[in-house]
């Protein structure tokens, strides 16, 4: 599972350069928040520096994309509060 998360984080990192500056759907944000939560959990269990760095970078990207979202849904607002809680450790 850790290898899957690492591969997903590498893909996330590689695609953020080309990513949209905002979220166009709840599904997009849900996937990013899920990946962040998994990376954070595994980092806390293993202490793997790569996961810390990736989670830190994801926190910045998620916040930036959320701020660029014109009219976030109520679910997106709820997920943003979870992102803020997770990212307080980074």
Explain what the structure shows:
It is a single chain. The protein is mainly α. The radius of gyration is 12 Å and the shape is elongated. 77% of the residues lie in helices and 0% in strands. The protein has 4 helices and no strands. The two termini are 22 Å apart. Helix 1 packs across helix 2, helix 1 packs across helix 3 and helix 2 runs antiparallel to helix 3.
Helical content (DSSP H or I, runs of 4+): over 70%
- Compute the average pLDDT: 84
Largest sheet: none
Number of helices: 4
Number of strands: 0
Element order: H for helix, E for strand: HHHH
Low-confidence stretches: none
General shape = elongated
N/C terminus separation? 22 Å
Using only CA atoms, what is the Rg? 12 Å
β-strand percent reads under 5%
Q: Decide which structural class fits the backbone.
A: mainly alpha
Entry keywords:
elongated; mainly alpha; 90 residues
List the helices and strands and how they pair.
Layout lengths: L1 H14 L10 H21 L2 H20 L5 H14 L3
TL;DR of this structure?
This protein has about 90 residues and is mainly α.
């Amino acid at each position: 599972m850790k290898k899957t998360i690492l591969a997903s984080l590498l893909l996330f990192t590689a695609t953020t350069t080309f990513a949209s500056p905002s979220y166009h759907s709840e599904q997009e944000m849900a996937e990013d928040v899920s990946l962040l939560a998994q990376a954070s959990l595994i980092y806390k269990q293993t202490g793997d520096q790569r996961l810390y760095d990736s989670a830190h970078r994801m926190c910045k990207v998620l916040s930036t994309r959320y701020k660029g979202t014109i009219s976030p849904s109520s679910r997106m607002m709820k997920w943003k509060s979870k992102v803020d809680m997770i990212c307080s450790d980074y």
